[in-house]
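Hello K.,

You asked for the raw outputs rather than the summary table, so here they are, unedited. I folded two proteins back to back in the same session to keep the settings identical. This is the first:
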Amino acid sequence: MKRVVKYIIFALIAVLFVGTFVFLFKNSRPAKEQYQELEAKYGDISRTTVITGKIVPRNEVNVKPQINGIIAELYKEAGQQVKEGEVIAKLRVIPDMNSLSSAQSRVRLADINLKQAQTNYEREKALYDKHLVSEEEFDQVLQAYNQAKEEKAAAQESLEVIRDGVSKRNATGSSTLVRSTITGLILDIPVKVGNSVIQANTMNDGTTVATVANMSDLIFDGNIDETEVGSLVEGMPMVIKIGALADYSTDAALEYISPKAVENNGANQFEIKAAVSGNSDKMIRSGYSANAEIILEHADSVLMIPESALEFSGDSTFVYLKSADTYTKTPVTTGLSDGINIEIKDGLSEGDMVRGSRIINTDKKKK
């Protein structure tokens, strides 16, 4: 009996040993690799690029004063519409002391000359009335008198302009009134009452009293990398989306490509512009960030596969074509790619199945 129990124990140990060996052997064998199968089919492919930029008015001007002075009054504020010639601000003149002194001296001299001319005129007229001088002599004295009066008026007007910025005879055309040069929307008034302003000259650009723009004519202004600018031509369609307006997009046409590159973060880029069509339901503000999507290349009804199915060896491109239960390495000629799918010009036919990415056996990992 003891011998039977002994044999049974040995048998159980042998079975356990063989079972463990078989289990370890099966788990040590590599699992059969499985792959996605991708079909070659016809479709449309487009290669696009997205350009970042901003929305700006086509015509934006800085309104500057015609004279130096201090802001005395502001009649407008940012956000208001203004017409060409409408007054935005009024200045109080700060006269140049040298110019003022010269103008005052000119007035005094003109006054002296006028008094002398008036005396000569009155004397000559008395003689002319008695027929003691000729008409020609009287006319010369009269002309000198009239010239002296005109010189006095001109000197007085010059003094008023230098001192007050406006003369009595030309009050409507006063240079103390800062007027808009275009019709549009006031984007900014960077000055306040009491600020000093200077006119533009050869030494400086002058003080901007207001920035005015025509907001009914907006453009997209962006930059494209030099590697892609060669694919652009004026008139190409594009879609513009504004980040601040989630549901807003508009079709546009490329209308300007800069002939000169600008360096931006170490890369050469070219400025592009496109008109933005208006939308009565949306308030588009100057300076909005925007993206423009341009189709650089397009192909209709071409044979294509997912680009992930491609393999590369040197200068050759190939795929693994499914044939029965095996995959055959097959060279292909590729064309246009959109980053996801790629055109196959030669090497495959519609309906062919090619090997894609490997499928990972998650069940084995759990074990």
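The second followed immediately with the same parameters:
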Amino acid sequence: MALSPVLYNQSLRHLNTFGLDVTAAALLHLEHRDDLTQLTDLVQAYPQLLILGGGSNLLFTRNFEGLVVWNRLKGIAIEPDPDSPQHQLLKASGGESWHELVMYAVHHQLGGIENLALIPGTVGAAPIQNIGAYGVELKDVFHSLEAFDLETGKLQTFDKDNCMFGYRSSIFKHEFKGKYLIVSCTLRLSLEHTLHTSYGAIQTTLKKKGIEHPRISDIAEAVIDIRRSKLPDPQVLGNAGSFFKNPEISLKHFEQLQQDFPDIPGYPVPGDLIKVPAGWLIETCGWKGRRMGNTGAHAQQALVLVNYGNATGEEIYEHAQRIIRNVKERFEITLVPEVNII
């Protein structure tokens, strides 16, 4: 099989959901596993490397003067779980759409990721970020992944412990950033479904639909409805989904804030911490729906920064910094971007 060619001085506008008009010095469409054989030499030839999936978690503030590898590897398979007849293993290649994988699992009655419906991006990006929504995180169903070592040219398997998952974090986002390309990811999903409906507006949405005994397909559809009501379509309005992480603060800090803000929401998390919705903090500071030039926080969800059509990455980044400073001044909480800023 012929290897995919390297393309030069390529626009990345269609490869980032902010729709930013930036270019890459070189771009490789990784279509087949055979293409992995040329990666090691290519990586050594360029000073910078970026592994790109759906481009849904990126903010380009400049052109990329290096090699972009667009992971387009495809393939999905269901395998028996040798350790449990109540579970099955769902293996997907890194270039598969995450949302389509969720719907594939739901169609095959495999439970565990229905709450993660409509999250943009690819399977290969999911473990890097340890994606999560509505009370569920990838690590809850993670079995293993297969990664290509860009330095040695060898494939390596990582189990859950190896990945060192944290809140919107993994070893691939820190210590191993840019050192591996995720070839495939295997999830351990359940045939006996445990539903998670207590987080966010899932119960309210199910009630409006008249659903008293939901199935995993009902949960997925409820999540899709909620996300579509809050989040703009990147095809219509450029965005990268949630721009900031939900901060975790001490119980003491939270109780102090309650004195001035009695309605501040908070959710207990391990470590005697309280998770505060970043969207609430941003909205309380008056940024929701407020447009400044070509960017701003979305009118339906303050956590989402948008490109109204002609914004540059620098413009969006500067707006994010204004919001960070304002929230810090008012709440003594430092917001941390969830997106990868380049």
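The domain at 6-71 is CATH 3.30.43.10 (Uridine Diphospho-n-acetylenolpyruvylglucosamine Reductase; domain 2).

Happy to rerun anything if the numbers look odd on your end.

Regards,
P.
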